[in-house]
Amino acid sequence: QQKVQQSPESLTVSEGAMASLNCTFSDRSSDNFRWYRQHSGKGLEVLVSIFSDGEKEEGSFTAHLNRASLHVFLHIREPQPSDSALYLCAVSMRATGGNNKLTFGQGTVLSVIP
Amino acid sequence: GPKVLQIPSHQIIDMGQMVTLNCDPVSNHLYFYWYKQILGQQMEFLVNFYNGKVMEKSKLFKDQFSVERPDGSYFTLKIQPTALEDSAVYFCASSLVVGPGNTLYFGEGSRLIVV
């Protein structure tokens, strides 16, 4: 069964400093990776999706996938206090029939200090 | 971006009673999902639904749970009867298609408290 772990549990950075979040997955046949963000009491906002090794940039968010090491990273360039939220990594596998059954990590709480 | 609406946002219900959680998915989407998040735990897949049928469900989708979308109206999750362990935030999601490259759009969740 797929396991998805995120680290750190919480991260505090100063406004404008790069923030880096880590997500580790267990199943090498995973091929579909997304980062979501959840502000308190709100729904999930999709940030960036990545499906092959390498980098994918969406605005100030960059996902970096290395399937050999079972890691997918999220880098946030010049974060603002409004980026303070819970960041969730979600992984799915083509083997599930492409039914978009996502396995989520437990999340990283990011706090951006002015 | 595309919006998924969930009603109610919060509900408190007595154990044993029935509850229906409603989801208004993105208008042209065809695939619908429910996820469950117990306080402090990871969000977990419950069920996905397409063309009037359940496509896949997890072991969390107990016999007391049911989903439907009658005549293109709300996509609903019904729990009958409710149990204390059903207390959680339930997130609805929808997508246009399935497969790689497709994106699920989530609602803001319905917080259910069973007392």
Question: How are the secondary structure elements laid out?
Answer:
The complex is a heterodimer of chains A (114) and B (115).
Chain A: E1 4-7, E2 10-14, E3 19-25, E4 30-38, E5 44-50, E6 54-58, E7 61-66, E8 71-76, E9 85-93, E10 103-104, E11 108-113
Parallel strand pairs in A: 2-11
Antiparallel strand pairs in A: 1-3, 3-8, 4-5, 4-9, 6-7, 7-8, 9-10, 9-11
Chain B: E1 5-7, E2 10-13, E3 19-24, E4 31-37, E5 43-50, E6 53-57, E7 65-68, E8 75-79, E9 88-95, E10 105-106, E11 110-114
Parallel strand pairs in B: 2-11
Antiparallel strand pairs in B: 1-3, 3-8, 4-5, 4-9, 5-6, 7-8, 9-10, 9-11
Shape of chain B: globular
Unreliable residue runs of chain A:
none
**Structural class by SSE content of chain B:** mainly beta
* SSE string of chain B: EEEEEEEEEEE
Mean pLDDT of chain A: 91
- Output the structural class of chain A: mainly beta
Low-confidence stretches of chain B: none
Q: What is the helix tally of chain B?
A: 0
Helix content of chain A: under 10%
Termini gap of chain B: 36 Å
Whole-angstrom Rg of chain A: 14 Å
Question: Could you describe the largest sheet of chain B, including whether it forms a barrel?
Answer: 7 strands, mixed
How many β-strand stretches of chain B?
Answer: 11
Radius of gyration of chain B: 13 Å
**What level of helicity do the residues of chain B show?**
under 10%
* Most extensive contact: A-B, 27 and 29 residues
Strand content of chain A: over 45%
Tally of DSSP β-strands of chain A: 11
Structural overview:
The complex is a heterodimer of chains A (114) and B (115). Chain A is built from no helices and 11 strands. The N and C termini of chain A lie far apart (41 Å). In chain A, a hairpin with a 4-residue loop joins strand 7 and strand 8. Chain A is mainly β and 114 residues long. In chain A, strands 2, 4, 5, 9, 10 and 11 form a 6-stranded mixed sheet that branches. By secondary structure, chain B is mainly beta. Chain B is 0% helix and 50% strand. Chain B contains no helices and 11 strands. In chain B, the strands form 2 sheets. In chain B, strands 2, 4, 5, 6, 9, 10 and 11 form a 7-stranded mixed sheet that branches. Chain B has a 4-stranded antiparallel sheet with strand order 1-3-8-7, with no helix packed on it.
